[in-house]
Amino acid sequence: MENPHSATLTQEQGSSLWRDGWIRLCKNHMALFGLGVMVFFCVIALLTPWIAPYGYEQQDLQLGASPPSAAHWLGTDIFGRDMLTRIMYGSRVSLLVGFVATGVALVIGVLWGTVAGYAGGRVDAVMMRLVDILYALPFMIFIVLLMVVFGRNILLLFLAIGAVEWLTMARIVRGQVQNLRHQEFIEAAFSMGLSRWIIIRRHLIPNTLGPVIVYTTLTIPNVMLLEAFLSFLGLGIQPPQSSWGLLISHGVESMEEYPWLLIFPGLALSITLFALNFLGDGLRDALDPRASKD
Amino acid sequence: MTLLSIENLAVHFHTRAGQMRAVDGISFSVDQGEILAIVGESGSGKSVACYSLLNLIPQPPGKIESGTALFEGRDLLSMQPDILRRIRGNEIGIIFQDPMTSLNPYLTVGEQLIEPLLYHRNLNRQQALKRAVKMLDEVGIADPETRIHSYPHEFSGGMRQRVMIAMAMIAEPKLLICDEPTTALDVTIQAQILSLIKALQKRRNIAVIFISHDLAVVAGLADRVAVMKEGRIVETGPVNDIFQKPRSDYTRTLLASIPSGSKSHPPQPSDQPLLQIDRLTTCFADNSGGWLSRQKADKKAVNEVSLTIQRGEILGLVGESGSGKSTLGRSILQLVPVTRGSVIFDGTDLVGLRQKRMTPLRRRMQMIFQDPYASLNPRMTVFDCLAEPLLYHGLATRKTVTAQVLALMDDVGLARTAIRKYPHEFSGGQRQRIAIGRAIATKPELIIADEPVSALDVTIQAQILALILALVEKHNLTMLFISHDLSVVRYIADRIAVMHRGELVEMAETESLFVNPQHVYSRKLLSAIPTPTTAQT
């Protein structure tokens, strides 16, 4: 029983799941590609004010809508604004909405669902009825109310969207936890004397990751489109600021005359969606030790 | 007359990890009116061999590489799928292991019973239902006219297995394949099901292939036995020869693994009670009305049980499923709310104790669970799993924890190199070793073992029992060993308590219970143990 790993074991004290997950993720080329694309987009978005070829409200009415050219790689819109610049600025809003709102939904949804599922009984019933009530509340009225009370604010927009999206997450997680709660390893953890919070954190939440990750990657593009919808109604961000969603909805209006106004922002959103899906699938497999090894 | 003759059957599974030879060139035959038992550990290929005859293995990854299986002169393996479909369920019936999952919960048993008749025999519903009622009566289900309209969940496990048998037999097959039909059942129910299969086989003069991991079970049943290991048949012979003069080493290992006799060393008398239970009652509230309804019906799972466990003693607790033995174990550890009574652990009453005072006590009492596949967190490595209790209870620091985990792994016989592996990479026996390691990590005084070997193969069971005995001695543990298997309990326990319907009906020294059982129910349990010595033809 010689142990060849004894020298390295002492450093390996953290939670093995995350470190092993990272190692496995690095072996998944598609997931790494997705991660690379997302990092690239985020870096571009951060640096936009310095690297954008034009200002986002800089118009050239003489030029009008022009197809891609050497001066304007992705063409210009009807006001002669550079599309590349607008897509770059738009990514700042869209990515921020996507990640912040989904993050809010993720944190609230997972915690709410886990607590409800684990506590069970009346606590569960009350918590989930609250979710039902919020579901039933028309989402638009809810957001308009928030806007009226707190004024129009981009942070509020994030919170409002997150506050709506967590409901489904909570239901998914609660279903998972209800299944897990009666498994013997949870009982074993309890009989070991572990506190409830540690059981939730170490034993329950990691085992709900599969569906949670998949749902998260689906939520991010969803949230981006939701933002476009709200902006379109005048509740989100306002022109001349832009977001992918807004660009797409404007692009749809002039789809037949100026297709590039739809194609390029649409492409940006699609690439993001693909990258996130690859990354999400990779993460799900990487964090599940049972997924087969290559 | 030979009914089924299999020549050189090989089934391989092609997976990403490589080719697995599940069945590696086996030949055997079954005669009309004969019971052939195929015995082997899980993974020996015994089920795959029989399932491949009926095209029931998933293909891919499975692939039948070679062989012929002549059933009345027709080769099952090269047959067109629609011809095979007419044989399956009609001329060859099959009974699966788990009666809980092999019946469709959304159909009444009657609907499921008449399916083969409607399909294979072109009977109309009225005739088919009449036959189904007769069949249910034949397998020993009381009041078959009413019960035929019940749903599967309204039957107990043993009754469901009877329904399964009825279903397999209703089309009057010539061959019945039974895949571990009693493994999921209690000992007393197992005895009933075995004698039912035997009686049906006699009456109809059919052939039976009986797959089992347990030699003791097939002893009183089979005419011939084939022993399988790693995809090959290592020995075939009449049942008496297998038991009296086994030729292969593996068969001898299997025979030696059957727990028999009692513990080699007598218990040391000790008069320091570690655990005193006084009139413990645990009720489960029936909450089916939802939380808005007020009325509640209580079901007494444990009813006024009093017992004492001395330090250093192994107390065996036996009973059927539903007798409340697991609930008693969980009540002692306060894993389920106790309704009345007291549980005094080393001078402290645990019932109603606040969580703050309970937590340090939990270190001193641990539990080993039945199902090694469910009792380990699938996302924690062996290291995480064993380090968690050590770190949580402050028994190790970040610096010393690795050494302590390695020592624990040595203790339970796990290779040190496995420390970074996840539970799914281990076999059932090794997983149970991890679970045992976790239970003894905190150096507890009391361990409650809830059927720790019931889910394991016989050979693995013998190893785990030996490990438990060694650990009990080494660490001076006190143990409540819960099992439905009396021969296991006899092997390990100093004293035995018998539970029946939530009540403690008898408690005695192990040997005196076996020699002279007092209660009717204890006698019933004892007579149901399958023993290799009863082998006869």
Provide a quick synopsis of the model.
The complex is a heterodimer of chains A (294) and B (537). Chain A is 71% helix and 0% strand.
**How widely separated are the two ends of chain B?**
19 Å
Which class best fits the helix and strand makeup of chain B?
Answer: alpha/beta
CATH homology superfamily of the domain at 259-286 and 294-364 and 445-455 and 467-530 in chain B: P-loop containing nucleotide triphosphate hydrolases
- The CATH superfamily name of chain A is MetI-like
- Distance from N terminus to C terminus of chain A (CA atoms, Å) equals 27 Å
Q: What would CATH call the class of the domain at 259-286 and 294-364 and 445-455 and 467-530 in chain B?
A: Alpha Beta
- Domain module count of chain A: 1
- Which class of secondary structure composition applies to the elements of chain A? mainly alpha
Largest interface: A-B, 41 and 49 residues
Q: What would you report as the Rg of chain A, rounded to the nearest angstrom?
A: 23 Å
Total DSSP E strands of chain A: 0
Question: How much strand content do the residues of chain B show?
Answer: 25-35%
**What's the helical proportion of residues of chain A?**
over 70%
Number of strands of chain B: 20
Largest sheet of chain A: none
**Which percent range describes the beta-strand content of chain A?**
under 5%
Account of the 3D structure:
- The complex is a heterodimer of chains A (294) and B (537).
- Chain A is mainly α and 294 residues long.
- Chain A has one domain (17-49, 80-286): MetI-like (MetI-like fold, Orthogonal Bundle), CATH 1.10.3720.10.
- In chain A, 71% of the residues lie in helices and 0% in strands.
- Chain A has twelve helices and no strands.
- Chain A has helices at 6-9, 16-26, 29-51, 83-119, 121-136, 139-150, 154-181, 184-191, 196-204, 209-232, 244-253, 260-286.
- The longest helix of chain A is centred in the middle third of the chain and has 37 residues, at 83-119.
- Chain A is globular and about 75 Å long.
- Residues 1-13 of chain A have low confidence and may be disordered.
- With 537 residues, chain B is an alpha/beta fold.
- Among the domains of chain B are: 1-84 and 214-258, P-loop containing nucleotide triphosphate hydrolases (Rossmann fold), CATH 3.40.50.300; 259-286 and 294-364 and 445-455 and 467-530, Rossmann fold, CATH 3.40.50.300; 374-441, no CATH class.
- Helix content of chain B is 35%, strand content 26%.
- Chain B contains 19 helices and 20 strands.
- In chain B, α4 crosses α6 (157-169) and α6 (157-169) packs parallel to α7.
- The longest helix of chain B has 18 residues, at 187-204.
- Chain B is globular and about 70 Å long.
- In chain B, 47% of the residues are buried.
- The mean pLDDT of chain B is 83.
- At the A-B interface, α2, α5, α8 and α9 of A face α12, β16, α13 and α14 of B.
